[in-house]
Specification:
Blueprint (H helix, E strand, L loop, with lengths): L7 E3 L2 H11 L7 E9 L4 H14 L5 E4 L8 E4 L7 E4 L5 H17 L11 E8 L2 E9 L5 H20 L10 H13 L4 H9 L33 H14 L3 H17 L3 E8 L16 E8 L6 H18 L5 H4 L15 E2 L2
Parallel strand pairs: 5-6, 8-10
Antiparallel strand pairs: 1-4, 2-7, 3-4, 6-7, 8-9
Helix pairs in contact: 2-4, 8-9
Length: 356
Amino acid sequence: MVQQTSNNFRVSPQQQRLWQLQKGQWQSTYQALCVVEIVGDIDIALLELSIKNVVERHEILRTTLRCFPGIDLPLQVIESSRFQLQYADLKPNNAQDWDEKFNTEVQAFTSKKLDFEQDSPLQTRLLRKSFREHIFLVSLPALYADRVAVEKFVQEVGAEYRRQLQDGDQPEDPWQYADLSEWLHELLESEDTESGREYWHKLAVPSLNPGRLAFEQGSLPSEQFTTHAVTLTLRADTIEQIDSLLDKYKTTYSVFLLTCWEVLLWRLTGQSDLVIGVAYDGRKYEELQDAIGLLTKYLPLSSTLDENVQFSEHLVAVNQVVGDLYKWQEYFNWEQFFPIEADRSTLLNYPYSFDF
């Protein structure tokens, strides 16, 4: 048995879940990626110093994940910073040349495999497009950061850069992710939080059977999981109609799109009972708003769709459930619904998810 010491800590419930998925049939390393356009004069040395200062403030940005004999999960080990800002002057000849060079750089940047026991989790690269134009690439493994965390990191680097220019006051010490990890475990284990966990115990979640999509093709065991994106642009009059609907039913774009997603899946699969994993960023409390680390959970939203129910009625119902899930999000534990077998050979996941 490995004992916890002053600089190593157990992983959070969110990290535990994602680690198990990555060790299962999906071998790709998930990433939280951000691309930032910088227009204007920039002091590269000062930018690198600003990033290093942010890394020093947040232990998770200089933490490795170490596997020890006799335990299934790694431990968080807080290290000294190994961060280095990568830089490349692409010197494009024209717009097409820039596109080709930029795409090559992004592909190389995102395809790098990290050694969680040795490498710095934070990867950055500054690309020079012209004298006053740069692109700043930021990548963190999803085991370390979610989408909100990467956005907070970029914002904090910008604030630190301005502070250095203006010789401003030192910021307050942030919450450290290792401390948050222990707090998240306590929420799932303490007798004092039993009422929160009881909500999920009482929640009836149907089967995760995804059904079969039209024109769906099976994947080969040797195929590696890759992501793809489809972009759709809404017309101005469509947006106006949506805004009117949201105002009428006192709801949000997120709930509206989630409801649309449910209806689309219902039509494509023919299944009226659906379970969708809905992302909640885990920052319900004010003191966690600026936290950097993996806090997002995908919570099970269960719905039964009926052709006799109008879209507006279903929208209202989804809005109510989304609010309930938000209230109890920190008490959810995946293994409450689907316990993992002792050999961890079978890991279930949501067939469909939603994030906004």
